[in-house]
Specification:
single chain; alpha+beta; Chemotaxis protein chec; two-stranded antiparallel ribbon; 8 strands; 30% strand
């Protein structure tokens, strides 16, 4: 399970160090040392382990391809997806295309969201937190 918030920077080669806690999750679950990265929602990137990626793909495969919204979403989701391997220093490469889609500059924030990791431009993440801080209680009431 991915939880927590970590501030990191992209290096000059667009590599991102995965937080130690996230690497431990991968090692403990005996996951492969690679991730799938794709366009997320709300202007961030989604990062999945291989098993979580399989779960997402399974869920999307149950949607009828005859539905135009399904086709449009699947095109955007899968066409921007890449598989990246974590190197020995615990870094992953963020391709230029995804870096632009996520609006990532040098400073980023990684957010653990249970089954996935979200990668945010740091300033964008701060704005999201500021804008949604007052919604916490009302969202909790809606969900629980």
């Amino acid at each position: 399970m991915f939880i927590g918030e970590y501030e990191h920077t992209l290096d000059v080669k667009n590599r991102l160090s995965m937080p130690r806690k996230f690497r431990e999750v991968v090692e403990t679950a005996q996951e492969q040392p690679f991730f799938f990265i794709t366009r997320g929602l709300d202007e961030c990137l989604f990062v999945f382990t291989s098993s979580q990626w399989d779960n997402v793909v399974s869920g999307l495969s149950t949607k009828p391809f005859t539905d135009s919204a399904t086709r449009r979403f699947q095109r955007l989701f899968f066409s921007n997806a890449v598989q990246v391997e974590m190197d020995k220093q615990g870094r992953i490469l963020i391709p230029d295309t995804l870096r632009r889609i996520g609006g990532l500059k040098k400073n980023v924030t990684l957010v653990g969201v249970y089954t996935r990791i979200e990668v945010w431009d740091r300033e964008k993440w701060k704005a999201v937190q500021a804008a949604s801080g007052g919604e916490y209680e009302s969202l909790a009431q809606q969900l629980f």
